[in-house]
Predict the structure.
Amino acid sequence: MAYDEGLAERIRDVLRDRVGVSERKMFGGVAFMLDGHMAVGIVGDTLMARVGPARYEEALRLPQVRPMDFTGRPMKGYVYVDPPGIESDAALQDWIQACAGFVGTLPPK
């Protein structure tokens, strides 16, 4: 499955000055890793956001956000953000910062 290369470039712009960033093909799209932990990714034109278990329910209450479920079973701590929810650069940056904040709490890989 192809992914939105324009969205990928926008994510790269936000992460450009951050240390420990890598990209990995996964989930039929691309994932952006921070120190080895997936933070955000893209499937099609949708953002995958790793918000963590504590912010999961809060994130689901936001417009354009839904559970991330590849197998028909939601992955707790991960959400999909549909394109209208990341239309502005500020909104995309907020999501990336929230996800980076969560993965920053994880033990090193």
Q: What stands out?
A: The helical segments are 5-15, 53-60, 89-103. Strands lie at 21-26, 29-34, 37-43, 46-50, 65-67, 78-81.
